[in-house]
Recover the amino acids of this structure.
C-alpha cells in the first residue's frame, strides 16, 4: 500500500508516517508545505505523478479556530477546496482518500453523543469550512473515501492542550481551566493506529468517529495531566467559559458516538485516561 500523508509534519501526520514506515508492506510519504499545496491542482498533480499513491490521508488543515472567524475565505481554501482537489486527483488515480474532520461540524449543544449520521450544524467558520471539505469528498469519491472525525487531539509533535498545560504547570502555582465544555481527549498515536486499522479492513466508504472513548472536561483532563507527572491536581482550579471569551465559541458538548466501528467488525479506540498515560510513556513533553 502506497500512502501519501498530507500535513505530514503535524501531530497526526507525523504519527501516521512513523507507523507506516515501520510496516514492511507499506510505502509512506509524509508531505507538507511548501512541498505541496493541497488547494493547488498543479501542485497535487505533480506529487501524484511522482509518488502514485493508492491511499491519501489528508491531515492538512487550517486549524487556527479563532483566526478563521476573520479569515474564513482563507480557511475555506485549505479546509474546503483542498479536499476537493485531493479527491479529484484520487478519482483520476483510482486512489482512496481519508479525510480528517472534526467535532466542530456539529452545533456542540447536544446532551448525548453525536452519531456518525447526525445532522451537521456548525457554529463557527472553522466548522463550516471543515464541513465543506467533507461534502466535497463525498461528492467526488462517493465509493472511495472515509471521513474520520476526531476531537481534542494531542500528540508528541506540534502544539496542543496537553503540552500547554505541562508548560503552565512548571511556571504557575495554580492553573484555571474551564469545566463546562465536555469532550473526548484523543491521542494522535491512537488515532493513527485506528486509521490504519480502517484501511487494512477496508469496509465500505463512509463516516467514522475516531476519538478515545469516554468523556471529560478540560478541567478534569488537566487534573489527569498533573497526576501523570506527579503534580498536585488540587492546583488545577475550575472556571467557566465566560472567563475565556474567544472569537470562535467553543462547543459545550463535543462527544462523538462510536457505533460505526462495531457495525463493521472493528474495535473502537481505548479509554482516554489510558491513552493519556500512554502518551506520557511515549515521551510527550512541554513545548
Amino acid at each position: 500500500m502506497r500512502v501519501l500523508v498530507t500535513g505530514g509534519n503535524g501531530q497526526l501526520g507525523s504519527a501516521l508516517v512513523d507507523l507506516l514506515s515501520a510496516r514492511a508492506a507499506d510505502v509512506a510519504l509524509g508531505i507538507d508545505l511548501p512541498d505541496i499545496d493541497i488547494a493547488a491542482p498543479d501542485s497535487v498533480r505533480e506529487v501524484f505523478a511522482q509518488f502514485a499513491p493508492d491511499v491519501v490521508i489528508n491531515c492538512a488543515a487550517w486549524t487556527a479556530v479563532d483566526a478563521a472567524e476573520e479569515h474564513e475565505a482563507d480557511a475555506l481554501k485549505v479546509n474546503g477546496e483542498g479536499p476537493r482537489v485531493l479527491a479529484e486527483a484520487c478519482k483520476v488515480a483510482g486512489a482512496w482518500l481519508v479525510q480528517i474532520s472534526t467535532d466542530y461540524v456539529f452545533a456542540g449543544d447536544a446532551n448525548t453523543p453525536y452519531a456518525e449520521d447526525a445532522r451537521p450544524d456548525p457554529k463557527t467558520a472553522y466548522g463550516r469550512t471543515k464541513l465543506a471539505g467533507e461534502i466535497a469528498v463525498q461528492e467526488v469519491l462517493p465509493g472511495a473515501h472515509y471521513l474520520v472525525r476526531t476531537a481534542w487531539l494531542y500528540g508528541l509533535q506540534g502544539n496542543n492542550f496537553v503540552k500547554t498545560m505541562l508548560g503552565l504547570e512548571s511556571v504557575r502555582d495554580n492553573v484555571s481551566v474551564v469545566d463546562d465544555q465536555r469532550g473526548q481527549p484523543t491521542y494522535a498515536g491512537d488515532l493513527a493506529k485506528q486509521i490504519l486499522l480502517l484501511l487494512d479492513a477496508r469496509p465500505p466508504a463512509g463516516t467514522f468517529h475516531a476519538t478515545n472513548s469516554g468523556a471529560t472536561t478540560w478541567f478534569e483532563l488537566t487534573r489527569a495531566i498533573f497526576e501523570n507527572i506527579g503534580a498536585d491536581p488540587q492546583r488545577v482550579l475550575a472556571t467557566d467559559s465566560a472567563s475565556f471569551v474567544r472569537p470562535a465559541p467553543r462547543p459545550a458538548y463535543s462527544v462523538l458516538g462510536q457505533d460505526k466501528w462495531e457495525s463493521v467488525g472493528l474495535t473502537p479506540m481505548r479509554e482516554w485516561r489510558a491513552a493519556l498515560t500512554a502518551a506520557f510513556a511515549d515521551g510527550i513533553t512541554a513545548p
About this structure: The chain has one domain: 2-159+185-214+255-270. The domain at 2-159+185-214+255-270 is CATH 3.40.50.720 (Rossmann fold).
